[in-house]
Amino acid sequence: MANAAQPKEVIIEPVGDPNAHVSWCQARYKSYRVSDNSWQPYHGPRKPCISPYL
Questions:
Q1: End-to-end CA distance of the chain
Q2: In the structure, what pLDDT confidence band is assigned to residue 18 with cuts at 50, 70 and 90?
């Protein structure tokens, strides 16, 4: 397959209001920590908060 489609690089750039992101994460996750943008699930390591405002 000489003409196989190559994967496209996706670049995500913040486009929204950073305050809206923090507010969304705080409302969604009680364990949200602003200093490193993470939340703590019941099991496993902390995870990054990915909001619709990023």
A1: 37
A2: confident
Mean pLDDT of the chain: 85
The secondary structure of 4-46 as a DSSP string is PPPPPP------S-HHHHHHHHHHH-TT-BGGGTEE--SSSS-
Residue with tokens 């908060």, as numbered in its chain? 49
Could you tell me how many residues make up the chain? Answer: 54
pLDDT higher than 70, residue 22: yes
Contact indicator for 21, 53 with CB cutoff of 8 Å: yes
Question: What gap in Å lies between CA 46 and CA 43, rounded to an integer?
Answer: 9
